Amino acid sequence: MDFSLPKEIEEKRNKVREFALREFTDEKKRYYDEHEKFPFEIREKGFKEGIFGVNNPWEQLVTIEELFRVDPGLGNSILSSAFGAEVLMLFGNDFQKKKYLEPVLKGEKIMGFATTEPVAGSDVAGIASRIENKDGYWLLNGSKMFITNGTVADFFLVLTRSGPSPSEQKRHHNMTMIILESNCPGVSRNKLYGKMGVRATDTAEIIFDNVKVPNENIIGEVGKGFYYAMTFFDISRIYIAAQSIGIAEGAVDMIIDKVKKDEKFSTMESVQFAIAEIITKVEAARLLTYEAASYLFEFKPDPTLTSMAKYYSADVATFAAEKALEITGVDGAITSLERLFRDAKIMEIWEGSTEIEKLVIYRSFIKKVMQK
After folding, report:
1. Options 86, 249, 351, 357, the catalytic residue
2. pLDDT value at residue 295
3. Residue 103 forms part of a structural domain
4. Strand 137-148 and strand 130-133: pairing?
5. Total domain count, the chain
6. What is the pLDDT of residues 18-70, one digit of tens each?
7. Which of 69, 109, 247, 346 could pair covalently with 103 via S-S, beta carbons 3.0-4.6 A apart?
8. Is the pLDDT of residue 332 over 70?
9. Any catalytic annotation for residue 351?
10. What CATH number corresponds to the domain at position 335?
11. Which domain holds residue 325?
12. Please, are residues 346 and 236 in contact by the beta-carbon 8 Å criterion?
């Protein structure tokens, strides 16, 4: 069994790392974190230099790792421009792909994926926003919370209810995915400030007040939205795992910088043990993530493996960042390592919290055990 990636994939990894080290300067990382601004110019450079791309999923995976290794907030500004694009690729019609997806992939537009609500986070089936079928259009009301690209996106894919609230056993029924242009009358967006991490990534609350949605903006079949969202999470959770691996590697890089500058520091067994532990966990997280990705990229996703990869990699990212802070002490607390530590924590939350991933793993495992 060959565990190495093809030469062209590793070449892409090197290209992305060179870009990130050149463009994500310490000054830029500090500025966009402190001011919580979206780095439009960095995003544009990323597209111009071919950093972003969806033609080869393995290239996308290593791109995520290397961008997050240098700075998660700035890296995500490039990657999240197409957040949710896979839903349009898989379930959108030709008209929707031409009008909405193509400009995003060219870097001309930014999209967002809106599922989370004040009353429904990891529990996607608990959403309350609703669309009603009128004469020739749909009427949307409700709100979304913590939406990536909330104030900068040109349009969103919105998951909403399209029928009566079903029984507790069938809460995932009667949900529909729609395309919503951000400048539609009745749409208001409020940027969220003071996030713990990834502050260069735009996040907002979105409110819908009698927003008219044309029939042509319904994605796939009415009532199938929950399944489209779950398919997307099977994909995006692999990418969150890659983000986590990048963060953990970034923490190692910062420890090594300290080792290079202080020879006495490098002789301390506690430091040596910490580095050994982190890089072992990183390697384990990468192998688990690549295994899950191999199934996904062959169109045979394994939700259990995906949840394992997302949960474990996020745990490793937090561990690595925390251990790096302990090792570097004051030096780390006043450098970009402090920011990396804050960025790491979100890995345990978005695209399904650690608790949700553990539930998926347990339920799948116990189901197999009971069938024996």
Report:
1. 351
2. 95
3. no
4. antiparallel
5. 3
6. 999 999 999 999 999 999 999 999 999 999 999 988 789 999 999 999 999 99
7. 109
8. no
9. yes
10. 1.20.140.10
11. 227-371
12. no
